[in-house]
Amino acid sequence: MPHLALTHGHMDHAGGVASYLGQRKLLRLGPTTIYAAEDLLPSIQSVVEIWERVQGNPYEVKYQAVRPGEYQELDGKLLLRPYPSVHSIPALGYTLCRTARKLKPEYKDLSGPEIASRRRAGDEVSDPHIEHLVTFTGDSTIEGLLNDPIARSARVIISECSFYGDEDADPALRTNVQHAHAGRHTHIDDIIGNLDQFGCETLVLMHLSRKHTPEEAFAALESRLPAAWKDKVLLFHHGNRAI
Ligand SMILES: [Zn+2]
Fold this sequence. Notes:
It is built from 10 helices and 10 strands. With 243 residues, the chain is α/β, with parallel strands linked by helices. Strands 4-5-6-7-8-9-10 form a 7-stranded mixed β-sheet. Strands 1-2-3 form a 3-stranded parallel β-sheet, with no helix packed on it. Bound molecules: zinc ion. Zinc ion is lined by residues 8, 10, 13, 87, 139.
């Protein structure tokens, strides 16, 4: 079953829920579980129910309220961990995790066959372990990641980075670092200044403001990223969003 985790209630993040559910119903793709903070979920449910009445047809949907730090079990070994983001309205980020077994330190110098033989003899050779695979920040200042060691330890971090304007940028565009922080968003200065906090293999930057072309963002990344990060940072955008 698909899992749809909402970060917050702004239109550009939650406004498509009913449309998404409608498309799944139309194409007979089966039910979806929607996760959202307990304060937000009833409003989302109301919006969906209004569209069910408008369409005269119920959607296939389940609702699950979440709280920061409390893991939700998804399918199989996957877990979803919400954490607090820092935005202009209450917001969450999420870390997708996987349960695994980790070899106990006292067995780490043994060969594979030796470990197998200990296991057959009934030894518990591993401990349960949670891997932090992917973090998605939603909309947030950089403090969302900086405040949460688990979120920023993920192997892949998908972080918002909305603004790239420098001090010479036209003030009317409101794209510099002060403007980003006033709207509780992340600026490229925040990313560059905190790279040493991230141990991730890949950092995906998203939520590029429509005030920037992708080319502007690519140029800023090319000129500002340290060499060690150039191959690890990706920019996710939706074509020329200045249109
Ligand atoms: Zn927002």
